[in-house]
Specification:
The chain has 327 residues and is an alpha/beta fold. The protein is 32% helix and 17% strand. A six-stranded parallel β-sheet has the order 1-2-3-4-5-6. A four-stranded antiparallel β-sheet has the order 7-8-9-10. Helix 6 links the parallel strand 4 (112-115) and strand 5 (136-141). The longest helix has 18 residues, at 91-108. Pfam families: Amidohydro_1 (PF01979). It comes from Bugula neritina.
Length: 327
């Protein structure tokens, strides 16, 4: 997927990029936090949708917009209070963004996708649009299905992501949407950063980097919750593999174990428990809100294109999965 980083300069390049094999385009509807990735206005979206009509490409959205109404007063809260950050990114921001995406999706009939949905209050709009024939898909993330705002300590900026982790009740409604396939994909939205960007000295949620690194633990996080909720290994495979492969147009190459497809497999023990510790984290910066959690599902080996790229005993093998995947 191509990050849709410069709206006005890239609009005329969409079709040539599709011809070169680009399968999708992502945009922000609010400031991304990085100046190099400006957000798109609604007029930008109309122009982009016009370029995407008649193609099988997908338009992906970070679905938050600025809202005109006054936000709840949080002046009495310290900047290291999680509640202050929550109040700065209310559900209304997601709801209004989802409304815009739905309107344009129905107008242009172009495949559209909401990335990392957090606000469950947007789900009735999504279900209604899907029933009306909108080619709209939605994903949520492991952190939204595992963590809740009631358990986020003040100053614990490793929990900060955008949109934010919301309440336990919100989490239950997201799970209901996973069950009824209103949400058909569960992803990591892996967003690592150096320790300094999380403002560890001050615990300032308003200044800290917004992102959680969850790729390594995703399978175990989701499976642990699936076990508690009566979902099967087959369900897990659909949400994390088959549905995502189909979404990217790769279902004839990857995503399931049909004979003739690429040999991309995880060998794992679904009943084995482990506790998340810092020394087991493979990503460079060991920041994670999952420290101390006990999870099910220990990965023994990861195989990409028939080649072992990770072994639970020895770690990564030196193979280059990116190159393997392109073969």
């Amino acid at each position: 997927m191509l990050q849709y980083a410069a709206p006005h300069t890239l609009l005329t390049e969409i079709k040539p990029m599709i011809a070169e094999g680009v399968r999708g385009f992502k945009c922000f509807l609010i400031h991304s936090g990085i100046d190099e990735f400006p957000h798109c206005t609604e007029s930008d979206l109309h122009l982009a949708y016009q370029q995407l009509q008649g193609t099988d490409s997908v338009f992906l959205f970070h679905a938050e917009v600025e809202v005109d109404e006054e936000l709840a007063d949080s002046s009495s809260l310290a900047d290291n209070a999680y509640d202050k950050f929550m109040l700065s990114r209310p559900e209304k921001m997601e709801i209004e963004a989802v409304k815009m995406v739905i309107k344009l999706c129905l107008q242009y009939k172009v495949r559209s996708h909401i990335v990392h949905l957090s606000a469950a209050t947007a789900l009735p709009l999504i279900r209604e649009a899907q029933k009306a024939g909108a080619p709209l898909t939605v994903e949520t993330c492991h952190h939204y299905l595992t963590l809740n705002s009631e358990n986020v300590p003040d100053g614990a900026t490793e929990y900060k992501c955008c949109p934010p982790i919301r309440t336990k009740q919100n989490q239950e409604e997201l799970w209901a949407a996973v069950r009824d396939l209103s949400i058909s994909m569960v992803v990591s939205d892996h967003s690592p950063c150096t320790a300094g960007l999380k403002c560890p000295d001050t615990g300032d949620f308003m200044k800290a980097w917004g992102g959680i690194a969850g790729l390594q633990l995703g399978l175990s996080l989701f499976w642990t919750s699936c076990k508690e909720r009566g979902l099967s290994v087959s369900d897990l495979s659909d949400y994390m593999s088959a549905n995502t492969a189909k979404h990217a147009g790769l279902q004839m190459r990857v995503g399931n174990t049909t004979p003739g497809l690429r040999g991309d497999l995880v060998i794992w023990n679904p009943e084995k428990q482990f506790t998340v510790t810092e020394d087991m984290i493979f990503h460079k910066n060991k920041l994670t809100p999952y420290l101390g959690m006990t999870l099910y599902g220990q990965v023994e080996k990861t195989i990409v294109g028939g080649e072992v790229v990770f072994d639970g005993q020895t770690g990564f093998t030196g193979a280059k999965p990116g190159q393997i995947f392109l073969n």
